[in-house]
Amino acid sequence: MDRGRTAAPRAGDVWVALLPGALPTGEASSWATLPSCGAVVTFTGTARDHAPGRTGVHRLEYEAYEEHAIGRLEAVAAEARRRWLEIGRVALLHRTGIVGLGEAAVVVVVSAPHRSEAFEAARFAIDEVKRTVPIWKREAWEGGESWGLEAQHLAEVGADGSSGRSVP
Length: 168
Prior knowledge:
This protein is 26% helix and 31% strand. α2 (66-83) runs antiparallel to α3. The chain has helices at residues 25-32, 66-83, 115-132; strands at 14-19, 39-46, 50-51, 54-55, 59-64, 90-95, 97-99, 104-112, 135-141, 144-146.
């Protein structure tokens, strides 16, 4: 099954992937850098040692409904590009499998001519990935493990008028 590109694409302005190993954060930032873009925003979500009501978290594990997750990641990138016409490149990379503390679980990179568009589009992209892509997290902590604190109800990309500037 196609899990998205494991290395930066040679052509195109979108890179999405589900990867079982370390995420190529530096490569994604370098790939997104273009001569026409003066801003590259890189967001890296890392595994932390706590969650609400849970201390001593020592491991995260992610599973994805791969058949749909890649399509949803592509839809998030497309919606960001629709809302911010001037953005250059978008990378949305998510880890699957076991993620140790301090390791990257998700990377979002957006380049744009100016910082405001890059920041806004990157914020939109990470929020939409969390809200719309079928990826589930299992936490292991002192005293137990669980697939999450509550059920995740996935929404369609951009369906609720979420944050970000809309283009008429």
